[in-house]
Amino acid sequence: xxxxxxxxxxxxxxxxxxxxxxxxxxxxxxxxxxxxxxxxxxxxxxxxxxxxxxxxxxxxxxxxxxxxxxxxxxxxxxxxxxxxxxxxxxxxxxxxxxxxxxxxxxxxxxxxxxxxxxxxxxxxxxxxxxxxxxxxxxxxxxxxxxxxxxxxxxxxxxxxxxxxxxxxxxxxxxxxxxx
Length: 179
Ligand SMILES: [Zn+2]
Description:
Oligomer: single chain
Shape: elongated
Bound molecules: zinc ion
């Protein structure tokens, strides 16, 4: 790590602490030459389960890309606002972090789905419903109604008042597999 002040290659770590919420290490460093102090943040890649147990009992390799794709699908109907992208990245990282707290080497699809729904529900109830609809392969009007009613009850009291703008998009990609 080079000194940002004088570009000297040797810096000394004076303090190091782990921030659990963001899963990264904050380090205070000091330049050996000019004594300038600065802070670095290094993320620790989350330790993830190696396998996912599907509903039928079969297993497959845990793929972060698949998880990311299933969350992106839930957002597909929303405008691509860059500030939203930031929030979405944080939500995705948050889900990964929760998954990494799961100590077994295999994790059930339902456990993952519940973590994703919890994360989405807090910020965007509609995206949560869209995600659940893909996960549960919701097709009929009655299934949509059940899902929406169930989700209404899951919402935190403050958010329940919020109007749930909901545009159904029953296009082809609703059928896409999520796990
Ligand atoms: Zn220096």
